[in-house]
Amino acid sequence: MKVRAYGKLNLTLDVLGRRPDGYHLLDTVMQSISVWDELDIQTSRQPGVHLQCNKDRLPTDSKNTVYRAAKFFLEDCGLADQGVYIFIKKYIPSRSGMGGGSADAAAALRGLNEMFKTGLTTEQLMAIGARVGADVPFCVMGGAARCTGVGANVEPVAPLPDCWLVVCKPPAGMSTPRAYSILDQYPLSSTQATPRMLEALEAGNLKRVAKCLGNRFDETIRLAPVRALKRAMVDAGALGSMMTGSGSSVYGIFVSEDQAREALETIDSMGRTFLAQPCSGI
Is 2-156 CATH 3.30.230.10? Predict the structure, then answer.
């Protein structure tokens, strides 16, 4: 069984506080996009979870989100004596803010649910996913959503209007823990982007959406390649441009495919590029 694992973009990312346990409180709007990894899931005669990946540097043990998601699924469904083999074909870059690891875990949960005919609801799969990572519940549901708390409270919202997206992952990257350590040196989000974004999405106004983009990590980390990419996107005709997640990928919103493809050629030398559209994520 082959399952797609769709990446995501943060249209907004406000940081509202920090819990006593160190986790940050977020208010973010995320949108699934048509850039994906692919999982090949099969049963195995050997009990347990067995992973392989086309990227040798990625772990294939309990450090991998897919491994943990599959293990939790089998245990929760009374299938701990079963075996699964999963091959992960990675396309979404790591340390990009595009949610590749979370998307892979979510795809594993959906695929295993179908393979073993366990009949878990989306909400039940999301609950398992929340034990793997904060972005996994969103990736299980897909589409567009407002995610609050540590990011695992997911509420569907109006999707990004029809458009074309150019995404570029520059060579420079940053781990999520490092990004948060930098962010903690600054005050919390003062002007919150998410409420304005929700109004723009509900109105279905793409130009207004593009003007409401916001990301507290983008404001505080200020990586030089990210700033250069945002300028290049706007110069190429993007209605708006923003870094996604804790970085370092940057996206631009374009009205037409032709315009987006021209922009793609312009920035191709600045990193790994993708042409995408908003999608349901499942």
Answer: yes
Q: Is the pLDDT of residue 278 over 70?
A: yes
What would the pLDDT profile of 9-36 be if each residue is shown by its tens digit?
999 999 988 888 778 899 999 999 999 9
Q: Is 8 a catalytic residue?
A: yes
Tokens, residue 139? 């990736």
**Which structure tokens are listed for 144?**
């567009």
Domains 2-156 and 164-276 share a fold: no
Residue among 8, 14, 27, 218 flagged as catalytic: 8
55 noted as active-site residue: no
pTM equals 0.95
CATH architecture of 164-276: 2-Layer Sandwich (3.30)
Distance CA 180, CA 190 (A): 17
Domain ranges for the chain:
2-156, 164-276
- Catalytic entry in 135, 169, 218, 230: 135
